[in-house]
What we know:
Layout lengths: L21 E6 L2 H12 L7 E6 L1 H9 L7 E5 L4 H14 L5 E6 L4 H9 L4 E4 L4 H11 L9 E7 L6 H15 L4 E5 L7 H4 L8 H6 L6 H7 L1 E2 L4 E4 L17 H10 L2 E5 L6 H9 L2 E6 L3 H17 L7 E7 L9 H7 L5 E5 L2 H10 L3 H4 L4 H13 L16 H7 L6
Amino acid sequence: MTLGHDTHGANPDDVRPVPRIAIQAFCETADVAQLLEATAEDRRMSRAHLKIQMGGLPAAVEFYASAPTPNLVLVESRGRAEDILSQLDGLADVCDPGTKVMVIGHVNDVVLYRDLVRRGVSEYIVMPLNMFDVVRAIGELYEHASTPLGRTVAVLGAKGGTGSSTVAHNVAWAVGRQFANDVMIADFDLAWGTAGLDFNQDPTQGMLEALNSPERLDEVFLDRLLTKCSDRLSILAAPALLDRTYDQRENDYDTIVEVARSIVPLVILDLPHQWTSWVRRQTCEADDVFLVATPDLASLRNARALVDALKGARPNDAPPHLVLNTVGMPKRPEIKPEEFAKALELETHVTIPFDAVAFGNAANKGLMIGELDAKHAANEAFTRLAMVATGRKEIRKGKRGAFDIAPLLAKLGVVKAS
């Protein structure tokens, strides 16, 4: 157990991203160096810059004698208490004002911890540690110095026409109405976005203005660009105009998302069906991913590719939550939901029943399904997804569906044909 904060056994869902800071680590052992290398690769560290070198406290003192110190210096020490304290005195002589120091030690010593605190050390954590312990400890150093960050949920369709925007909007409505949580929808489909239509709004400004004024973008400016749909729900609407093309760079949306997370506890990212560098970045950095698919072969193929890509890019996060939409469409052969999920190696899924009348009426009237019929099966599904989006609990297994998937899996190369 760390002597300053209880980090061991940290729940990944409770570990918040580290802000944009510079960190330099000086390690004594290969184990700690490997641990920090894994930490640097985690998405929660994507804003921070972590540089690692060997040598421990002596190397840090020598290095900073002729170089400025970063926001955080992280040092490992296996030495005796008196050696650690002596070397820290030397480090204090070369540290710039405002630099924080965290020590990774191998001895659980309360007296040593108190002596370190008296010398201005920000935190002392004790091996063994895992990656989440380190990220959480770093984040807690800056928790009170920065604005609290909300959660982000990326909603992405496995192919065009899966209804991912409908899912995103109904889930956001359920979060605001049924759980009384503040929530924002960020409509990233600049050319064809439907957030304004679905909520019967006609925004005059939104996402495009935020993109075009990065130097002005702060909490006050972003709040002015939002369209209020209810007391709890706001949208950052897409222009939905074709007077120009929209070719965004990988990092163009970073500041928008970062500022949005500082003003609301939950941001729903309504992503278009594309695989550009910026879509990949926002998907990979979200706290949760809802993958919306229809029960057909094209969706299965694309969903499998997305799950594999996200598994590689988010090795320390839960896999995407599978949402099967328009299940039970008359006369359409469908893959059974449980077989669909099994092919993707996902344990859980949510199914949304096909109902052309209910969804058509809701779309034409600018209403959500829950406003039309609170007891509709689709509204129950959206409520379950809203619980996941707010971090309340895991979704349950879905209902059974339609036909045998084995021949299709063989076609995809998932299994061999019998």
